[in-house]
Predict the 3D structure of the following.
Amino acid sequence: MRRLSLLALGAAATASCNTVPPSPSPAQIARSQAHLQELTAGKIARAPIGCLPHYRANDMVVVDENTVAFKDGARVYIAHMNGPCSNLGGAGYALLTRTVGTADLCRGDIAQVVDTSAHMTVGSCVFGDFVPYVRPGS
């Protein structure tokens, strides 16, 4: 009987680790869309690029768990992640990237979401293409 109790406890603990994060609410989706529209207002999208030069990756803005923007003067680069970065945008969390072979941030690079107070990785995701948004005529 004791062995059965330990197995049931182990199964319950394992199941609790496999929970799916809650879907964003309609209000959160509306805020994200408004934020993205604010960042790209008056700009047009150019062809996506595979890598963002390291000197343009300093001013990052989190739009939502799926989208980050990099501001470079009047130009904005929007990156949609391949899979959500759970907890990204929450208080006390930061996006940590490591580049391999180049200083640039590229499609396919893995980013980790880190809890800054506990110094623990709490999620990860992969960068997609970077879409530059520029003012017409630029």
